[in-house]
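Troubleshooting: if your tokenizer reports a length mismatch, compare your output against this known-good record of 670 residues.
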Amino acid sequence: MKLFQHSLLSAACACLLLFVVTSCYGQQSDSNYRIAVIPETLSLEVDETARLTGTVRDAGGNAVHDSVFFYSLSRESVSVSRSGLVKGLQPGTFELQAYALTPGNQRLTATIPVEVSFPPITDIAFTGRPGRMYADTRRPVTLSVTDAKGFDRNPGEVTLTSSDSSVAYVDNFGQLHAKKPGAVTITAQAGEATARRRTEVVVNPVTTIELTRKGEQQTRTGDVVRFTASPKNAEGRVIDDMPVEYSLAAQPDNNRGEASPAQVKEDGRFVARKPGTYTVLARAGTVFAEQTIGVEARDIQREVEVVGHALVGDVHTSDLWVWEGVDGNDYAVTGTWGGNGEAYFWDVTDPANMTIIDTVTVDARTVNDVKISEDGRVGVITREGASDRKNGIVILDVRNPHEVEIISEYSEGLTGGVHNAFIYEDHVYAVNNGRRYDIIDISDPGNPETVSRFELDTPGHAVHDVWVEDGIAYSSNWDDGVVAVDVGSTPAADSPETHEVGTGSPENPVQLGSYSYPSGWNHAAFPFRSQSTGDFYVIAGDEAFPNGLFVQDKPTIPAGWIHFIKFEGGWDHPKEVARYRVPEAGTHNFWVKGDTLYVAYYNAGLRVVDISGELMGNLYEQGREIARFVPTHHRGRIPNAAMSWGPHPYKGYIFVSDWNSGLWALKLTD
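Known-good structure output:
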């Protein structure tokens, strides 16, 4: 969990962790004091700088002291030093925060709005298809728009006009409608920037459309059905460059005012969220074709049986890892958050009677992450909040989980704190101070050595997590999204999404590609290949606390969802194809095993999701949720409040760590 979490736009500075932790437990500001900031608001140009000054004043307006510090909630857009030097990096409206302590050591905060002006648009270019259209068709006008500072701008800021609207015209939504044969010039203008494209409208030759689909006439909710439309002329020849528009008419089985219960994409892919009868229509100009399809409920729901529960009520529980020990028994390790630096080792051979068999205590406030090597011999735990500020990682001998021994502590270059880590082929990938990850050789666990580091160079960049699969490290980088880095992969001739790999190593990490999305909430990533289709996906999970984390007597309501990303056609062409979104809740960690996704959905508990077949749309609405379990306990760290942290499917069981109630062992009933 990242308590110095994003505002609705981006992550707050990692240096404020202890400050935010204090606020989470209800410390109130003293109303007798306030922070006075000069100026109270800022208006900047891109790359312009300004200076903020702040003082703490009492109820009479008298200055008490000037120990006021500043930080940015949108570091990639507007930066600020602790002393108040501000610089506009990207256009938009943002917020800076000032914080200070009263003479009684109570916390004060103030918000400073900042508006960074948009530079003038200087370049407009038409993109997309060439300038020829068939009469009675339409297509979007696509533009590349940049401004004086090189920022990409919204094409909606550009005015589009036609030289002859009787031949073709542009509507208010940027769609170019071809009406009759002829030629027109389309003009795009924004300020002094102008671009023109000549478009020729020709006779529409289509007289019929052949509409086909793969599979049976009956399908299930969540199953993707592919329709193919072939527009033909009077001689029966297919007109390959004719644009086809798809739409649908829906008659759900239970029609009680709900929104459209299905969708069809521009490429003819259809998926239904509700059972019913659907008619898919394909149009080319004024010619139509249609097909009807029946959709049944997916009907895959199962119950969850609680096999065992080990309550941890005196401290928050963080991550977990379950493994088979060298003695053949089954073990788990869980971390602790905001405690005394403890990691608990459990015997889970009998999940109905899980017991702590050893405790490792290190100098830390939080042991956030715990990992075990594939051979079950070496463990790594991360440290944050060490009293000596060394933090880093602790390497453990776990061959005998009843008597775990510390092999070494490693903090070289890691003093800012390690939030997450991953073990892969004798190397630890340690997320360092939320800025980069260090790659540490632990082939000799008593003498670890940093062999390289990977860090982005984008403004305000940050990283939260990293997961390594088949020699590729997938890091979660908040605003910069998921970043794939080759750290020792082997090219696979039959895998198109990996044709560029094979050039990196732990000593020489090589970036392959990335995918980001507007919220900037990217918190975790998990790569997997679909068992049923062979398609390769990367899951990106969100984390955000727009309502605060835990303020006194106020429940925590996180936000965010699961994004399914495909790197089709190479690492430079990522595409988000589906999502899984539980309303009024937010995700944390997750795991894929076979064609099943296990999500610790924080306040919404554990969710088990069917991800078989091609994925499209919102899986939550398609009946793909197999099961759910919301763990609570009246003697939990926060009583009767679920906050599921991490799942681990293992040998037919689902182990779940919950922030408030400890370790759970669950099983799906038949």
